[in-house]
Design brief:
single chain; Argininosuccinate synthetase, chain A, domain 2; alpha/beta; Rossmann fold
Length: 400
């Protein structure tokens, strides 16, 4: 094989650090690392030096935070998205962007393959590979965890391999759970969390304090929306990434956004995940609040019926599928006019909408009032109810 260039999705963590060295030693590949900055913060420190010392031919480190929030997080949150009712898709939304940029670099570098460190048990393998082939059908995908040559089939073996080859890693045998962080969330899986009865330890959390230790005084924040997207906090306009980062700060300080769930992976097994999504939790609540006064009832109900399907598509790795794109078109159309301000109170893990206002509000206080009014004839409700009761009365008479 003349072309030995491979683009590796590289995080600098245990798996991809070991895989970088393994691809070079086992196959003689020229490995080009790609690290996407989607909000990992200090996890990117020293990454270039580490990759080169481990043998990388070149490394791309690209700031994709604005693109991540603008083109992936916001479109999903217009759908009021939640997988299986709880998971706000932090990891799921970052993977298609990473896959997209990875294959773009592969084209630029004329690499014959892309590689990733996702295991054969999880969802990320599906997300990376579906994304890569949707955008670059000819590319070869190297997934060591699914190869016969890969003998490092436990975290303990990889840690030993890393020590043997002088690869510095943060994970130790005493703390073997995996973490994934971006601007939307941080996830924890594996290790001590595989015992479903083990409560997560407080020192594990990164983005939020515990509700018990949150301030005794509530924090109120006003979020402004334009056609379904947040654009300002307390009247100050912000870019998508800066806005989400600020909501993370506010939510984290007030113990917002922790969940502990057992979810259904696409490959068929159940898996426990502990997540921190402080900003996303606030954003979801506020978005729903502005929709309540600006969105037509039937449009909202239709969108809500489609949301579980949309969430499953994103979770399962079908971001670049035609069905997700069609659903996105409908969702985006439903958000026209979802514009205005929402006030949210944050207090010890709780996120409560306390106010809504919009120039495009469909709420009419003259109709909704319990006091006397002149715009609604209550006698009309009688005929309305009788017509809707007709089929119920017929059914009861037949049964009788």
């Amino acid at each position: 094989m003349k072309n030995k260039k491979v683009v590796l999705a590289y995080s600098g963590g245990l798996d991809t650090s070991v895989i970088l060295k393994w691809l070079i030693d086992e196959f003689g590949y020229e490995v080009i690392c790609f690290a996407a900055d989607v909000g990992q913060a200090e996890e990117l420190d020293g990454l270039e030096e580490k990759a080169r010392k481990t043998g990388a031919r070149k490394i791309y480190i690209e700031d994709l935070r604005e693109e991540f929030v603008r083109d992936y997080v916001f479109p999903a949150y217009r759908a009021d998205v939640a997988y299986e009712g709880l998971y706000l898709l932090g990891t799921s939304l970052a993977r298609p962007l990473i896959a997209k940029r990875m294959v773009e670099i592969a084209r630029k570098e004329n690499a014959f393959a892309v590689a990733h460190g996702a295991t054969g048990k999880g969802n990320d393998q599906v997300r990376f590979e579906l994304g890569a082939w949707a955008l670059y059908p000819e590319i070869k995908v190297i997934a060591p965890w699914k190869m016969d040559e890969w003998k490092l089939r436990s975290r303990e073996k990889m840690i030993d391999y890393a020590k043997k080859h002088g690869i510095p890693v943060q994970v130790t045998k005493k703390k073997p759970y995996s973490m994934d962080r971006n601007l939307l969330h941080i996830s924890f899986e594996g290790g001590i969390l595989e015992d479903l009865w083990n409560e997560p330890k407080e020192d594990m959390f990164v983005l939020s304090c515990s509700p018990e230790k949150a301030p005794d005084k509530a924090t109120s924040v006003v979020i402004s929306f334009s056609d379904g997207d947040p654009v300002a906090i307390d009247g100050k306009k912000m870019s998508p990434a800066r806005l989400l980062a600020r909501l993370n700060e506010l939510g984290g300080e007030n113990g917002i956004g922790r969940i502990d769930i057992v979810e259904n992976r696409y490959v068929g097994m159940k898996s426990r995940g502990v997540y921190e999504t402080p900003g996303g939790t606030i954003l979801k609540a506020a978005h729903r609040g502005i929709e309540q006064i600006t969105m037509d009832r039937e449009v909202m109900h239709l969108r809500d019926e489609l949301m579980p399907r949309y969430a499953a598509l994103v979770y399962n790795g079908y971001w670049f599928s035609p069905e997700r794109e069609v659903l996105q078109t409908l969702i985006d159309a439903s958000q026209k006019g979802v514009t205005g301000d929402v006030r949210v109170k944050l207090y010890k893990g709780n996120c409560v909408v306390t106010g809504r206002r919009s120039k495009k509000s469909l709420y009419n206080p003259e109709m909704a009032t319990f006091e006397e009014d002149e715009v609604y004839d209550q006698k009309d409700a009688g005929g309305f109810i009788r017509l809707n009761a007709l089929r119920l009365k017929v059914r009861a008479q037949v049964k009788k």
